């Protein structure tokens, strides 16, 4: 039994945030920031013994290429009764995302050539500004926090990345770049702001991989 939901319906928006987080982790990086332009359609289905499944149609844009939008269909299944397992997400993107190959390579080379490891905090700053040289670091945090949002969302939460509180590059002996982030996630339902530690590995050919994440204690 499927039920059409108005796109403005809160549960539809919460499911869309999960799908977007998943897709940011999968397809985002220092050269691409995916954001939701419009939630076009949402359906909810109660699947016996499995959970609630949301079928969504989203219109997305890349913050670095706002003239072009892509359509994405997504299914988000919140498993029954389990607080500990992540929603199951499937996404299909229709249309071409702009290639980030060149930007990725430039960023990779720039970071590899730094004499001192990069350290930064408060991105964006209190005025909402992101310095241009930190934009890729900010977008990589979008990708990394996308993983955290996907893994930790339930039907009753809606997480958004509010700010990168702190980021520190860690030198490695292999080819990956490593960044240790502390991000602030804003949970829209409880209005809580939660600091989260996330370590992300990134390489132009392999994309972003979160190697560890931890909700900071005391929150």
From TrEMBL:
It comes from the Eukaryota. Signal peptide: none annotated. The keyword Repeat applies. GO terms for molecular function: metalloendopeptidase inhibitor activity. Residues 1-102, 119-219 form the Cystatin LXN-type domain. PROSITE patterns: CYSTATIN_LXN (PS52033). Keywords: Protease inhibitor, Repeat. The keyword Cytoplasm does not apply. Belongs to the protease inhibitor I47 (latexin) family. PANTHER family: LATEXIN. This is LXN protein.
């Amino acid at each position: 039994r499927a039920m059409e939901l108005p796109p403005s319906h809160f549960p539809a928006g919460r499911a869309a945030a999960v799908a977007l987080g998943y897709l940011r982790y999968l397809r985002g990086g220092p050269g691409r920031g995916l954001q939701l332009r419009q939630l076009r359609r949402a359906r909810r289905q109660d699947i016996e013994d499995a959970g609630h499944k949301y079928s969504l149609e989203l219109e997305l844009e890349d913050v670095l290429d706002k003239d072009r939008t892509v359509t994405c269909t997504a299914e988000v299944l919140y498993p029954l009764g389990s607080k500990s397992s992540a929603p199951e997400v499937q996404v299909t993107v229709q249309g071409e995302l702009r290639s980030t190959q060149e930007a990725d390579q430039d960023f990779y080379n720039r970071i590899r050539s730094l004499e001192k490891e990069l350290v930064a905090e408060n991105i964006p700053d209190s005025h909402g500004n992101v310095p241009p040289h930190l934009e890729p670091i900010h977008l990589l945090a979008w990708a990394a926090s996308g993983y955290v949002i996907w893994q930790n969302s339930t039907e009753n939460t809606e997480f958004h990345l509010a700010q990168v509180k702190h980021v520190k590059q860690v030198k490695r002996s292999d080819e990956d770049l490593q960044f240790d982030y502390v991000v602030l996630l804003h949970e829209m339902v409880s209005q809580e702001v939660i600091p989260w530690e996330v370590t992300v590995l990134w390489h132009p050919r392999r994309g972003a991989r979160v190697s560890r994440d931890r909700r900071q204690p005391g929150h």
